[in-house]
Design the sequence.
């Protein structure tokens, strides 16, 4: 299918109830610069205060409502804080729009256009998606210096990020059923399948029982072993190197799955996490931990079996200390001497002890030749989130 002409990620737009808390998080924890801010006219017209934070090529616009009828307020009436739009750079906006219209995309309004004082041009439009209130925006920039129309640029480029954050690696969404998403990515956006996985946490428990069984005899099914599961498919825009992972829960414990619980907590499907790529994850995680930023814990069994896993995956060139990975609870996966390292922050609701902060979280990822998603890491993340949710549920349960 003909490419939309995507160059890459441009930015993403977050709706929050507490902009100062977000400003502190991005600037003081992640060492982002505040690169732009909505001017007075845009603030009055939009009814929301907005600031843009940047590191490397990552740009996040954070908006908080000033009036009840603004876009951020409408989003927050239906959801906790979260991403309400993703933006992509394109080569030719007219061509992108024509292709999307031909394929049945729902375009939300006519394109907007702006020119800066030097004659640079900005053009964009948005489309609806199967992710409910999450829109996709396509942007064409031609020597345009500002973040967007009505924004005051505070700095031309952010300073070098102390953690080396470079760009958005991928975006992961959760839905109770992901087939509408996959068909949308394939038939409307022209993406192709990159990777898929399906598993159940009960499988892991059974594997552990298998390892402990004597004489290699597989134990009989244990009715007490149960769990939840997911199906995930990653779609890819080859030209722009844009990857979307989509998750849905599996039966029989569908409603107990952390994927389903995300959808309930988010009041619908949405973006669960966004991964940011950086060149050296070990020193970054060490310093972020010292700054008080918590990460999802990983079960000790993951590291107990890690040398065996790396041997089976034929990975013998890991430069990082395996002890450092275990101490910092960083995950590793890959194959044939190509690997990746990744770790996941706690969700915002847990980070701030505030349900309205939402179930979104960030991932940090270092790629050492491997561009995949890692079966073992995927399952470890799933199990970690479930343990985190169970801990929160017990903490919130009344005594007795």
Sequence:
């Amino acid at each position: 299918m003909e490419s939309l002409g995507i160059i890459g990620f441009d930015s993403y737009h977050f709706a929050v109830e507490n902009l100062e808390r977000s400003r502190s998080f991005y600037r003081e924890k992640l060492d982002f610069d505040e690169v732009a801010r909505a001017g007075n006219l845009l603030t009055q017209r939009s009814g929301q205060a907005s600031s843009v934070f940047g590191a490397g090529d990552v740009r996040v616009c954070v908006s908080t409502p000033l009036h009840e009828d603004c876009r951020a307020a409408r989003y927050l009436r239906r959801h906790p804080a979260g991403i309400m739009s993703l933006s992509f750079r394109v080569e030719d906006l007219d061509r992108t729009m024509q292709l999307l219209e031909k394929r049945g995309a729902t375009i939300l309004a006519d394109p907007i256009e702006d020119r800066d004082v030097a004659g640079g041009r900005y053009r964009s439009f948005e489309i609806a998606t199967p992710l409910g209130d999450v829109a996709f925006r396509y942007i064409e920039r031609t020597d345009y210096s500002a973040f967007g129309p009505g924004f005051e640029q505070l700095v031309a480029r952010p300073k070098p990020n102390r953690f080396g954050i470079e760009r958005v690696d991928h975006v992961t969404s959760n839905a109770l059923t992901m087939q509408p998403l996959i068909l949308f990515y394939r038939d409307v956006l022209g993406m192709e399948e990159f990777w898929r996985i399906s598993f159940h946490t009960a499988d892991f428990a059974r594997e552990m029982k298998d390892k402990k069984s004597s004489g290699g005899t597989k134990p009989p099914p244990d009715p007490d072993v149960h769990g939840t599961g997911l199906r995930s498919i990653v779609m890819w825009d080859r030209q722009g190197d844009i990857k979307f992972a989509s998750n849905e829960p599996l039966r029989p414990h569908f409603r107990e799955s952390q994927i389903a619980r995300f959808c309930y907590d988010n009041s619908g499907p949405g973006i669960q996490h966004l991964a940011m790529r950086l060149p050296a994850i070990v020193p970054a995680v060490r310093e972020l931990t010292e700054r008080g930023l918590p990460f999802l814990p990983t079960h000790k069994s993951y590291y107990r079996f890690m040398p065996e896993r790396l041997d089976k995956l034929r990975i013998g060139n890991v430069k990082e200390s395996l002890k450092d990975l275990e101490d910092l609870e960083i995950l590793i996966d890959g194959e044939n001497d190509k690997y990746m390292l990744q770790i996941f922050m706690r969700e915002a609701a847990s980070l701030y002890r505030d349900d309205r902060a939402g179930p979104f979280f960030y991932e940090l990822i270092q790629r050492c030749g491997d561009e995949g998603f890692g079966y073992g890491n995927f399952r470890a993340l799933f199990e970690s989130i479930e343990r985190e949710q169970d801990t929160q549920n017990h903490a919130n349960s009344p005594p007795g």
Notes: The radius of gyration is 22 Å. The chain has 13 helices and 17 strands. The chain has two domains: 6-153, 167-396.
